[in-house]
Design a protein that fits this description.
7-stranded mixed β-sheet; two-stranded antiparallel ribbon
């Protein structure tokens, strides 16, 4: 499992782009995690699934509300990662008002989630392999803080905890 001080593993995440530009076409675009975090401070939070209750009511809205404060604290980008495809993440992002605040990154095959060692097996609930709920602050591809939630909890991966860590 990933820990503080580790470099993020190689991997690709998908983001649904609604406006063509900056070398990105409309629709799903692939992004190399190591390249996208190089030279940047990135707040990454992951959750079990798009449109799920805690994720939609608390986790994503908290980061949307705190986006300006996180950027003022030196965070270049905020990513939401979930084991969902880029189409679902794009639609959920529209519903949550994330444009220009939080990048909604799909990990449809759970390959990034497996590489960081933070999978959650929800097969018995009909949801397959998902991501644990966590957040991390990454600087130049290196994990500076890592906040992993216990089962069913939402106490340490929230935006306010990340803001305190970004300001430290």
């Amino acid at each position: 499992m990933l820990k503080v001080g580790d470099k993020l593993p190689a991997g690709t995440l998908q983001e649904f782009i609604e406006v063509e530009g900056n070398g990105c076409s409309l629709g799903p675009n692939s992004f190399d995690v190591q390249k996208e975090t190089a030279g940047k401070k990135v707040a990454i939070f992951a959750l079990p699934g798009a449109y799920t209750p805690t994720c939609s009511a608390k986790h994503v809205p908290g980061y949307v509300e705190a986006a300006a404060d996180l950027k003022a604290a030196g965070v270049d980008e905020i990513w939401c990662v979930s084991v969902n495809d880029a189409f679902v993440m794009g639609a959920w992002g529209r519903d949550q008002g994330t444009a220009g605040k939080v990048r909604m990154m799909g990990d449809g095959s759970a390959s990034f989630t497996q590489a960081v060692g933070l999978t959650l097996d929800l097969t018995a609930r009909g949801m397959g392999v998902r991501s644990q709920r966590y957040s991390m602050l990454v600087e130049d591809g290196v994990v500076k803080t890592l906040n992993i939630e216990g089962p069913g909890a939402f106490e340490v991966s929230d935006a306010q905890t990340m803001l305190k860590q970004a300001r430290a």
